[in-house]
Design goal:
Helix content: 40-55%
CATH topology of the largest domain: Lambda Exonuclease, Chain A
Distance between the termini: 33 Å
Largest sheet: 5 strands, mixed
Number of domains: 3
Oligomer: single chain
Number of helices: 11
Order of helices and strands: HHHHEEEHEEHHHEEHHEEH
Bound molecules: iron/sulfur cluster
Structural class: alpha+beta
Strand order of the largest sheet: 1-2-3-4-5
Strand content: 15-25%
Shape: globular
Amino acid sequence: MHSKIVGGSTAARVIACPGSVALVQAAPPQAESKYAAEGTFLHAAITALLEDAERLPMTDEQRDNKIAPALELLDQVDPDRDMEFRTEVRVDFGDFLPGVFGSVDLLGKIGRRAIVLDWKFGDGVVVEAEENKQLMFYAAAARRSAPWAFEGVDEVELVIIQPPMIKRWVTTIARISRFEDQLDAAVQEAKQPNAMLQTGDHCRWCTAKPTCPMMTGAADRAVKVKFDALDKAQIAIYLQQADMLDGWISDLRELAQRALDNGQVIPGYKLVAKRGTRKWLDEDKARAALIEAGLQDPDVTTLVSPAVAEKKLKRLPDGLTVSVSSGNTMAPDSDPRPAVLQLGQLLKKVL
Ligand code: SF4
């Protein structure tokens, strides 16, 4: 469960753009991507190992490339294994900032140093620990809600373990206090009716992009631009905006597709079946036909694909293949493919 106001992963966005809180609250919930689902699983798997709980079944790739290297990197933080620690710790700000909370992957203490650690299992951009707002959020919240980790402590180490990388940054309690002031100011600003909106790198993961006036305004301006009248400096500015618009466009498409999937109407658009890929209808019959045509080695188990067979034979015998679509996609009404019938939605209307 995530805070509706601000949590660790949204701290950078809310501090930079307090107005995003209200817009994100009004945005429809997003479906979990397969990358996010794998990240959640790997977090659970490494937590189970550290807690001596029942091991979760993982693939060799997950064990060798993610979990084992992450545990080795943890040894760099705690070489003598004397860290007192807890995993998946819910941390919050109590009455100071009601409704603001998060969950830190590992909270620990070694001597006079508190440790705030986050696992990142994505292969994308390497995340830095220095001045990392997600980790400072957890440190500030843990100071209030998990005092055992801060008793007698005079420094805080923020750690990102993102196999094969580890990033570490030691900071002071005073820096964490200043971060808390910054967070408090952003949360108070977010409550104002016209809270400040500000674009930047933090927009990348913002679910309000399709409806954000800063984004829709930029899109409108981009449509009206006369490109031949632009100087180079202006082109550079528009290139920066183009990166943000890329994210806005893909989020907008996803939002529209979800609405159509749910049976809602987007004027001028419909759902159509994705282009199908051909498969052998009956592999035994196909194998016999391919061997007879001299296209298939009888000793090889993998069948020649319909596309390869057709290239060589010019025309495949009737009834050997079937076209299978991998799902639905959004298309304009002018697309010649017929709109798909959504049985689930029709049943809902009837019942
Ligand atoms: S898209 Fe960017 S500017 Fe708009 S609300 Fe989200 S973070 Fe703020």
